[in-house]
Design goal:
By secondary structure, the protein is α/β, with parallel strands linked by helices. The protein has 2 domains: 4-271, TIM Barrel; 277-364, no CATH class. It is built from 14 helices and 16 strands. An 8-stranded parallel beta barrel has the order 4-5-6-10-11-12-13-14, surrounded by 5 helices. A 3-stranded antiparallel sheet has the order 1-2-3. The radius of gyration is 20 Å and the shape is globular. The termini are far apart. The chain binds one RNA strand of 74 nucleotides through residues 31, 33, 35-36, 40-41, 56, 58, 61, 64, 88, 90-95, 98-100, 114-115, 140, 143, 145, 189, 215, 217-222, 228, 246-252, 255, 267-275, 277-280, 287, 289, 292-294, 323-324, 326-328, 330-331, 334.
RNA sequence: GUCGAUAUAGUGUAACCUGGUUAGCACAGGAGAUUGUGGCUCUCCUAGUCCGGGUUCAAAUCCCGGUAUCGGCC
């Protein structure tokens, strides 16, 4: 049985159905970030309230606390956090750019558990086991991500280690899935930093393995936009049409639309929630800075036609007030608005794809979003 | 009426006693950043010495007068 089916296409843009162990989910999707089994300032109930059914959590960080075994004992992450939606788990490769990273060798990545300062090593095998214990619907292979500015040799080395770990991750995952009687999917990750030939090589190699889906990793790590698009373009043309494609870490509303146009199906990013906490809110007419004085007496919602919990119930003036007095409820409302904005934007994009006018939709959306 | 204290961006204050960088800081105001999340974070900009005179090479700072505010006493 195929676990991904493309049901509509408009040039490269498409609508698909991802068939996971939790259930079926229509792509393109945006995964709200719930690294530690909860969003920052929002819970699974909040996501349900804005009709958001897909998240990404982090296997490494969940394993630090409360531990993947405990989550398994509690019936898996869906039950533990009471989220009846699609859950991806990231492997922890990205956390190699964090300060608790302690270096790598050919067999895995070393970390310091920030909660108890114990050394903790993850390997392709151990992180597969952790993700199966957590019980996510989609697991990610262990990858090695070179930082922005890495030399060619450094990028090549990271890519080659990623390829090696990809094969190992896949083999272990297949074995463990049978042992645990799981239908968890596993996605591969393309690396190659910002070198066109490495991106191509990595895309071809990862595509040759039998992953359920393919992610492009190692972008949006501080590089200029042009380099990001170059890296993605170099890889994506070598990925098979029929597999779900995931760009890790994107993004902004316009980045998401641009990537949908290239055939990307899955997104995740802290961008919408991080900027929301810092008072940058998405509207169809562009970004607004909600903490500015002009909104102090604005009785309108953040966005007129938005159906999120913030816009249905509160004015810009009120949320500006909550922000000014540093009430944490403001962080929740603002985060939920931006998540909902992305979801609604993607829903509109899907309608456009069905009607074969995605390009026009994107251009109109971009024009309005960028106008000042 | 009288004696005293105080007067610095929109607001609150620092520098005054002991004259000497570009008058500092916070909030407010404006423009931005933020992309597989240990942090309601970070960057830049706007804006000020009550008024008048004096001393001095040099005054927010010392002196005199005015005005305003606050307080004490009649």
């Amino acid at each position: 049985m195929k676990n991904f089916e493309i049901i509509h296409e408009d040039n490269k843009a498409r609508i698909g159905i991802l068939k996971t162990q939790y259930g079926q989910i229509e792509t393109p999707i945006f995964l709200a970030v719930a690294t530690r089994g909860v969003g920052k300032h929002y819970t699974s109930m909040d996501l349900i309230a804005i009709d958001h059914n897909s998240i990404i959590s982090n296997a490494l960080i969940l394993n630090f606390r409360p531990g993947s075994q405990l989550i398994e004992e509690m019936g898996g992450l869906h039950k533990f956090m009471n989220f009846n939606g699609c859950i991806f788990t990231d492997c922890g490769g990205f956390q190699a750019s964090r300060h608790f990273f302690q270096g790598k060798d050919n067999t895995g990545l070393n970390f310091l558990n920030p909660y108890n300062n114990q050394k903790f090593k993850i390997t392709p095998k151990s992180i597969m086991n952790i993700q199966l214990e957590i019980g996510s619907d989609v697991a990610m292979m262990l990858d090695d991500m070179a930082p922005y500015g890495a030399s060619y040799d450094q990028a090549k080395e990271a890519m080659e280690l990623t390829h090696k770990w990809g094969k190992l991750s896949l083999d272990f995952h297949n074995k463990l899935k049978i042992e645990k009687n799981s239908n968890q999917m596993l996605f591969g990750i393309v690396q190659g930093n910002f070198y066109e030939d490495l991106r191509k090589e990595s895309a071809k190699y990862i595509s040759s393995l039998n992953f359920d889906g393919i992610a492009i990793g190692g972008v949006a790590i501080g590089e200029p936009k042009e380099e990001m698009y170059m890296a993605v373009n170099s890889a994506i043309v070598h990925l098979p049409r029929e597999k779900p494609k995931y760009i890790m870490g994107l993004g902004t509303p316009l980045d998401i639309l641009n990537m949908i146009e290239k055939g990307v199906d899955v997104f995740d990013s802290v961008y919408p929630t991080k900027v929301a906490r810092h008072n940058t809110l998405f509207t169809k007419d562009g970004l607004i800075y909600l903490n500015r004085g002009k909104h102090k007496n604005d009785n309108n919602p953040i966005e007129k036609d938005c159906d999120c919990i913030a816009c249905l119930n509160y004015s810009r003036a009120y949320i500006n007030h909550l922000s000014k007095i540093e009430e944490t409820s403001a962080l929740r409302l603002k985060s939920l608005h931006n998540i909902r904005f992305i979801k609604r934007m993607i829903e509109d994009a899907k309608i456009a794809i069905k009607e074969k006018r995605f390009k026009e939709f994107k251009e109109e959306f971009t024009k309005r979003f960028e106008k000042k």
